[in-house]
Amino acid sequence: MTAGKLEAIWLKRMKRGPMDPRNKATLKAGSGLVDNANQGGKRQVTLLDTARWARIEAELGTRLDPSTRRANLLVSGVSLAESRGRILLVGPCRLRVIRETRPCERMDEAFAGLRSVMQKDWGGGAYAEVLNDGEIAVGDVVSWTTA
Q1: Pairing outcome for strands 73-76 and 87-90
Q2: Residue 61 burial by Cβ neighbours in a 10 Å radius (0-12, 13-18, 19+)
Q3: Cα–Cα nearest to 77, from 90, 62, 96
């Protein structure tokens, strides 16, 4: 099994609010990231993988901070493409991927053409529900699991 790494964590103070970087965060089952604006529902945590983000930057011909995507977790070493229903282990926490995150108009507000480039191949990342409580930190191991 290939393992990756949790590269970054961001919390959103309020809807449409800034993305605040964190070194650590708390996940709550059935809710999401503690102190994040989005709580509950199926879209509890949003995920982006570094390899896909690099391809987006290459297609746009520019470098963009990954926080531009407005995802909560940036992971490396694992692909989120076609991961619907899979369970991602982030440190001690299990996240079930619900589906692909479709980019919204906010992406073009951040950088012209970004939304269009993100539309294909899970470019917007994925969103997941939190299956168990726990603390996560930048540098934690990330891997796919069956349980």
Answers
A1: unpaired
A2: exposed
A3: 90
Tokens for 142, please give them: 């990330």
**Residue range 94-123, pLDDT digits in tens:** 999 999 888 777 776 777 777 788 788 887
CA distance 39 to 18: 16
Task: Tell me the C-alpha distance between 40 and 43, whole Å.
Answer: 7
pTM: 0.91
Map out the domains of the chain as residue ranges: 3-145
Question: Considering the domain 3-145, what is its CATH architecture?
Answer: Beta Barrel (2.40)
CA 10, CA 83: separation in Å to the nearest integer? 22
| Contact indicator for 76, 50 with CB cutoff of 8 Å | yes
% of the chain exceeding 90 in pLDDT? 57
